[in-house]
Amino acid sequence: MNQNINKIKKLSSTLRLLVRFLIVAIPSYYLIYWVFINQLPTTLISVNTEPKMILEYPLEVKFQIIGFLFALPVLLSLLYGLVNVDKLFIFYQKGVVFSYDQVRLFKNISKALIFWVVASTIYQSAKSVLFTLHNPPGERMITIGFGSAEVMILVVAALAILVAWTVEEGQHLSEEQKYTI
Q1: What is the mean predicted confidence (pLDDT) over 137-155?
Q2: C-alpha–C-alpha distance, residues 134 and 180, integer Å
Q3: Stretch 22-29: mean pLDDT
């Protein structure tokens, strides 16, 4: 039993470092993406080929700002989820594996995942409009994407809610047994 707790503490400590890195890196990525959208190639590595730019025409600053504003709900849902994951790992680092606070954190992570799927779908559609604004009328596009990745994230969110309910029920049963003579 103590070996598992020690493993949980160690792994949580390592994963917490990763989460903290992501809390800084993800907002930086979105900011860099929209500030330098006119200079970014589709891939950072191109061997024996000319780099292909994301946009054929430069995007005006006001549209870059609008694009970043559409990215904010995606970004905020990611950060909300990561902050809650970080708090969860703090509990695990302390060796606390079942508590009502963890139930709340699992529910918050689930909400963040669900909101991320919705916001991400809207964001991708907004990007398709912004990226085709320079096209002549009739060639502008709006795309709406919902694929297997989004379905998988919703399944993970549902599993996190199920885990939260299970832990919550386990806590109730444990407390009932504790006070039963």
Answers
A1: 91
A2: 72
A3: 96
**Sequence-distant contacts of 120-125: CB under 8 A, at least 24 apart:** 120/74, 120/150, 121/145, 121/146, 121/150, 122/70, 122/73, 123/70, 123/71, 123/73, 123/74
DSSP readout, 162-175? HHHHHHHHHHHHHH
Rounded to 5°, the CA angle 161-162-164 comes to 65
Find, among 6, 1, 74, the residue nearest to 34 by Cα. 74
Q: What is the pTM of this model?
A: 0.85
The DSSP secondary structure of 16-42, one letter per residue, reads HHHHHHHHHHHHHHHHHHHHSTTT-BS
Residue 41's DSSP bridge partners are 53
